[in-house]
């Protein structure tokens, strides 16, 4: 493969998931104090996410990664594992991990690294929790 310039390729996917911010390491009153309305017993929902890969463009194919392959990896993690799920009850990872957006980004990043043949291409997971709140995780 002849390597070309470094290119960033982003796949945007909208998923809906609900969760409750509640740490088993804190008392109920501490959870309410720290997480406020996000500690609502019934939970609350968000629409999430972008995934970006970064790497040298293959000069023969003109691609960093085949977008169809990236779409499949993103589907396997976001749509199959998280979409229309209660993160705290349906995703084993969050049984003992508070489902903050930061931890959701880390989970997505780690799961994608398991699927992508060259995991070093994975650059970042960006989650738009709201129009004003965005979390970026780059594996650091």
Summarize the structure in words.
- This protein has about 140 residues and is an alpha+beta fold.
- About 30% of the residues lie in helices and about 30% in strands.
- The chain has four helices and seven strands, in the order ββαββαβααββ.
- The chain has helices at about 30-35, 65-80, 85-90, 100-115; strands spanning about 5-10, 15-20, 45, 50-60, 85, 120-130, 135.
- A four-stranded antiparallel beta sheet has the order 1-4-6-7.
- Helix 2 crosses helix 4 (about 100-115).
- The two termini are about 30 Å apart.
- The model has no long low-confidence stretch (mean pLDDT about 90).
Q: What is the gist of this entry?
A:
The protein is of the alpha+beta class.
Low-confidence stretches: none
**Would you tell me the structural class of the helices and strands?**
alpha+beta
Helicity, as a percent range: 25-40%
What is the CA–CA distance across the termini?
28 Å
Average pLDDT, all residues? 92
Q: How many helices in DSSP terms?
A: 4
Order of helices and strands: EEHEEHEHHEE
Strand content: 25-35%
**Major beta-sheet overview:** 4 strands, antiparallel
Bulk shape: elongated
Q: Which strand order does the major sheet show?
A: 1-4-6-7
Number of strands: 7
Rg, Å, rounded: 17 Å
Multimeric status of the protein:
single chain
Summary tags:
7 strands, 4-stranded antiparallel β-sheet, alpha+beta, single chain, elongated
């Amino acid at each position: 493969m002849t390597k070309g310039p470094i290119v960033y390729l982003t796949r945007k996917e909208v998923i809906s998931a609900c969760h409750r911010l509640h740490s088993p390491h804190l008392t109920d009153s501490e959870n309410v104090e720290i997480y406020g309305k996000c500690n609502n017993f019934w939970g609350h929902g968000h629409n999430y996410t972008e995934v970006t890969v970064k790497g040298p463009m293959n000069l023969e194919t003109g691609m960093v990664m085949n977008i169809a392959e990236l779409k499949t990896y993103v589907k396997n993690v976001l749509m199959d594992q998280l979409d229309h799920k209660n993160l705290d009850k349906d995703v084993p990872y969050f049984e003992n991990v508070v489902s903050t957006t930061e931890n959701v980004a880390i989970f997505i990043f780690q799961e994608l690294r398991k699927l992508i043949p060259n995991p070093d291409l994975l650059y970042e997971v960006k989650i738009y929790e709201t129009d004003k709140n965005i979390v970026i995780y780059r594996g650091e």
